[in-house]
Amino acid sequence: MAETLHIIGGGMAGSEAAWQAANIGVPVVIHEMRPKVETFAHRTGDLAEMVCSNSFRSDDDEQNAVGLLHWEMRAAGGLIMAMADQHRLPAGGALAVDRDPFAASVTAALKDHPLVRIEYDEITELPADGHWIIATGPLTSEGLGNAIAAETGKDALAFFDAIAPIIYHDSIDMSRAWMQSRYDKGETEEERTAYLNCPMDRDQYEAFIDALLAADKTEFHEGETATYFDGCLPIEVMAERGRETLRFGPMKPVGLTNPHAPDVKPYAVVQLRRDNALGTLYNIVGFQTKMKYGAQTSVLKMIPGLENAQFARLGGIHRNTFLNSPTLLDDQMRLRSRSHIRFAGQITGVEGYVESAAMGLLAGRLAAAEILGQPLQGPPQDTAMGALIHHITGGAEAKTFQPMNVNFGLFRPVEGLKGGRRGRKDRYKAYTDRAKTAWSDWLSRCTLDENQTV
Description:
Layout: E1 5-8, H1 12-24, E2 28-31, E3 55-58, H2 65-75, H3 79-86, E4 88-89, E5 94-97, H4 99-112, E6 116-119, E7 131-134, H5 142-152, E8 157-163, E9 166-168, E10 178-179, H6 189-192, E11 195-200, H7 202-214, H8 235-240, E12 268-274, E13 281-284, H9 293-300, E14 311-313, E15 316-322, H10 325-328, E16 334-335, E17 338-343, H11 353-371, H12 384-395, H13 424-444
Parallel strand pairs: 1-2, 1-7, 2-6, 7-17
Antiparallel strand pairs: 3-5, 4-5, 8-15, 9-13, 9-14, 10-11, 11-12, 12-13, 16-17
């Protein structure tokens, strides 16, 4: 029997790492502090609980970097992608997930795996020996966070994530709202009508911005500074950057026609996306917020169609910590000062569910291969995962390191292709074709137990 791999944290990254390692034949123990120790954002004790959006973003594996990452994870037998596909919701060209059944299915799959054990305990110190992956995510507990900071000798970087509100569908006024994806994107009628749209005229938009800027906000503790990841900015922070910022961001009115007034072009549009399979819950797209609860309800009810909205969950804000990975981790995702410890997920400085799970997939495979005495080189830089891990473990500038989504800007150029917007379609297709070949070649060199299926 191989030595045991211990994983601290049962989120996206920890769950995927456990699945990958166990399928190679390595016994795994997942240490998850919930539900014994709660966090601000989590509601359950399930593994891989989605606490912010329910979207895995674009599923286009030919023209989008995150869609390519989906493809690579599916090709590697990823648990997270398999369960996301199983609990998929209509979302145009995106992959949205019914969050509660998704997390329950991930939890059940890991509990049923003969080589996986789950222990519900909080670990507050760095382990002195053994084989470990720390995948505690943005809500790393204070005790463990302090231990990591003490070991690295550097201050953990911090920014703040804001959570979008969720509304009960039956409280939305559909005489004012309508269902449509931007530019009617999608192959089926369900996909083409995946988003619920609430239009605003100019006066309504201006009044909304005024109320948003004046609303009571969550205050930070003494000594804390708010450095947000640009992909998850609170709406009030966007509004502070300029009155038109929201109208050119999550509230852009393009690609939509209001069937209630087809000749009137909305000045701005608020979109909501289905949050569960029943269609009873909808989250407000891009509306992460740090407004206090009372202010949220009054400001959000100014949106046409949401005047009588009932909230299943109000928005909130939480601290998010991550390592300065370019200085602290090697290309095997190991802590340079303690090589028996790997890190995975958002704590490494990637941003997003998919990126976090992808780093868990790599950490699980790399750790398992090392335990079995067959060290594995990381994936080629021309793959989506290779580009991402290269960025966080050395490609990024350490002095200005910030959380990063996967994007084609991390990919090495393909020679002979035209730059700029006009050449983008051919360039992206070349990136994805090259990546798929490189990823398939890398997987063929990884020994997996083919008897394990999702």
